[in-house]
Design brief:
Radius of gyration: 21 Å
Number of domains: 2
Number of helices: 11
Shape: globular
CATH architecture of the largest domain: Orthogonal Bundle
Largest sheet: 5 strands, antiparallel
Strand content: 15-25%
Distance between the termini: 25 Å
Structural class: alpha+beta
Order of helices and strands: HHEEHEEEHEEEHHEEHHHHH
CATH topology of the largest domain: Phosphatidylinositol 3-kinase Catalytic Subunit, Chain A, Domain 5
Number of strands: 10
Strand order of the largest sheet: 3-4-5-7-6
Helix content: 40-55%
């Protein structure tokens, strides 16, 4: 394991959803007709900063809407939640209300975070409405196909709706929870190695600690851990291969340090091989879907020619394979990564 301060070159542009991806979304039932759009939520007059309980700026803001718009927006948000969670069955929102809407101008897709509460028992949930960015959608789909995690989202032209991914933010977990006495630190290290491997193969970039969460599941004699990405904005855009390796970000040093202390080179290789085998199994069961996703991706721009050239040349050297030099798109590189994993597992 290594660590350094990897820099993201600049803020990634938003790539519009092309017709090929629209067809893919319709085929796999990810498209939807929503009562309100992302642009509708931008109709606020001003915002108020949201502070945490310690008085620190959270980078989220509370938008203030004209009174005549609030009922229309909030009713539409409840219908969107019903579409996301129950295929449009609005009975699930009969006793729910929109508690608050928050806006983050800091993120690439400038998301809105919606908190919806059940008035019968005060149980709450979150979901997000964002600008539809093709890169992010490809990232969500690759997460669905190549990882052990399921993702729930919908797209309506320029509007993207995502469910909330539950977990402890990686930076908070490292500071406050990692060394909990009942936790097996080797299991946490193992999961970080597997997460690192998934990001490398799928070209999911910028997985700094605050862009993933740690999920903890009590087992009958121990705790199980899973690291899940929550930010897919930097899906196969950058040309620097280290951007796709969480081990190189300084924000992830606590996880790297833990892995160095509790794993050997032999066990790291073992866990990498386990994850590659799992990916091969998933690819075989979803081979038609991943082929359709690849075909859709070839019809639109998802990065710059400079970045593609830089990454394929770096991979050709690191993998000692001139096949990477033939890749014309970022998804060609992902496809070759997957093919190489299949060959390695079959050896």
């Amino acid at each position: 394991m290594e660590i350094e301060d990897v820099k993201i070159s600049r803020k990634k542009p938003i790539y519009a959803v092309g017709e090929g991806l629209h067809k893919y979304l319709r085929l796999y039932q990810r498209d939807a007709k929503l009562p309100i759009t992302y642009k509708d939520l931008l109709s606020f007059t001003e915002t108020i900063p949201v502070m945490d309980k310690y008085g620190n700026d959270t980078f989220w803001e509370t938008p203030l809407y004209p009174p005549y718009l609030i009922d229309q927006l909030y009713d539409g948000l409840k219908v969107i939640y019903a579409n996301l969670k129950a295929s449009g069955n609005t009975r699930i929102v009969q006793h729910k209300y929109i508690d608050r809407v928050e806006y983050c101008a800091f993120g690439n897709t400038r998301p809105f975070r919606i908190r919806i509460v059940n008035r019968l028992n005060d149980v709450y949930d979150y979901f997000y409405i964002k600008q539809a960015d093709a890169s992010r959608i490809y990232g969500l789909e690759l997460e669905e196909i190549l990882s052990p995690n399921q993702v729930n989202y919908m797209v309506d032209h320029e509007t993207l709706v995502e469910e909330h991914i539950v977990g402890i933010p990686g930076d908070i977990f490292a500071k406050q929870r990692m060394y909990t006495p009942d936790y097996n630190l080797t299991r946490i290290s193992k999961e970080f190695v597997k997460f690192n491997e998934r990001c490398i193969i799928s070209l999911l970039g910028d997985m700094r600690a605050y862009n993933f969460v740690v999920q903890i599941t009590p087992d009958f004699d121990d705790f199980q851990f899973r690291i899940r990405a929550i930010d897919f904005d930097q899906q196969f855009y950058e040309g620097n291969p280290k951007v796709y390796m969480p081990q190189f970000f300084k924000e992830n040093f606590p996880y790297v340090k833990l892995s160095m202390e509790h794993l050997t080179d032999k066990t790291v290789l073992q866990y990498q091989q386990e994850e590659r085998s799992s990916i091969v199994h998933r690819v075989r069961s979803e081979r038609h879907r991943i082929a359709d996703l690849r075909d859709a991706s070839k019809t639109q721009q998802l990065s710059t020619e400079e970045n593609i050239k830089q990454l394929r040349e770096a991979y050709a050297i690191s993998h000692e394979s001139e096949q990477y030099l033939k890749c014309k798109t970022m998804t060609d590189i992902v496809e070759l990564n997957v093919k190489n994993v299949i060959r390695q597992v079959q050896l």
